[in-house]
Amino acid sequence: DDSEKTDKIERAIHELLPDKADNGADISVSTGTAIHSPDEAFCETVERADKLMYQHKSEYYIRTGKDRRRH
């Protein structure tokens, strides 16, 4: 199942990152992972991954109450 594969990839990325930068600042990463299918144009795969990244960013802002985006 592709969702299991993408979840595994995203967990691996997050496990590699430290919680804090050298200066003590929090580190966070938003990921969007999509498995490319041979019957799909590569740009469509990238678009799916991009949409997932923005979805994850939105979920993060809601979950943490942090929103560093400028309005």
Report a brief summary of the structure.
The protein has 71 residues and is an all-alpha fold. The chain contains 2 helices and no strands.
Percent range of helical residues? 40-55%
% residues in beta strands: under 5%
**Poorly predicted segments:** none
What structural category characterises the helix and strand content?
Answer: mainly alpha
The average pLDDT score comes to 84
**Computed CA radius of gyration, to the nearest angstrom:** 14 Å
Q: List SSEs in N-to-C order.
A: HH
Per DSSP, the total helix count is 2
How many E strands?
Answer: 0
What characteristic shape results from the CA principal axes?
globular
Could you give a short account of the major beta sheet?
A: none
**First-residue to last-residue Cα separation:** 38 Å
Could you explain how this protein is built, in words?
The chain is mainly α and 71 residues long. Helix content is 54%, strand content 0%. It has 2 helices and no strands. The longest helix has 23 residues, at 42-64. The radius of gyration is 14 Å and the shape is globular. 1% of the residues are buried.
SSE layout and pairings?
Layout lengths: L1 H15 L25 H23 L7
Question: Which descriptors would you attach to this protein?
Answer:
mainly alpha; globular
